[in-house]
Amino acid sequence: MKHRPFIEIIDFEKELKEYKLLCRRKSKKFTYYLDWKNYIISLIQKIKNDDYWENFKYFCRNRERSTRNTSSMYLNLIILFATICLDKFLVDINIFGWFVIFFVMIGNVVWQNNSYEKENYFYKDILEIIEQEELKR
Fold first, then answer.
1. What pLDDT was estimated at residue 40?
2. Which end of the chain has fewer beta carbons closer than 10 Å to its terminal beta carbon, N or C?
3. Would you state the pLDDT for residue 28?
4. C-alpha to C-alpha distance for 53 and 47, rounded to whole angstroms
5. What is the distance between the alpha carbons of residues 119 and 64, in angstroms, rounded to a whole number?
């Protein structure tokens, strides 16, 4: 079973899916960002212990940092390296082949950035809500 910290406060996987739907205006649960924000506030207000609060904030900040995407860069370097090896040793790739490879790499970067950005924005929004609530404590 997967370890899911702070599940008693927020189910991050479920809320991230809902956040992504909200960003695409396809959420059935929330119409506006403010509705979602108020819902998150109601969840984190359950935290009474200061140590638990600090751990929760640290966890969210750490998740926000870890969602910054570098994997697409490495994947593109691997694709480029494999293409150069194929070109030198196996197949002579014409100009059309290089364009196809180039567009596959660009498409990969765009797709990866879009999926990681939403997750990064989710944690940034959670942290912003936490900081606002912290001022009220």
1. 95
2. N
3. 92
4. 6
5. 8
Q: How far apart (Å, rounded) are the C-alpha atoms in residues 22 and 35?
A: 10
Contact 16, 124 (CB under 8 A): no
Residue with tokens 């899916």: 17
Q: Which two tokens stand for residue 127?
A: 């942290």
Kindly state the tokens that stand for 25: 């205006």
pLDDT tens-digit readout, 99-109? 777 777 777 76
**Rounded to an integer, what distance in angstroms lies between the CA atom of residue 107 and that of residue 101?**
10
Task: Please report which helix (H) or strand (E) contains residue 28, including its range.
Answer: none
Q: Using one digit for the tens of pLDDT, what is the confidence trace for 21-54?
A: 998 899 999 999 999 999 999 999 988 888 999 9
What DSSP string runs through 37-55? HHHHHHHHTT---HHHHHH
Per-residue pLDDT at 2:
64
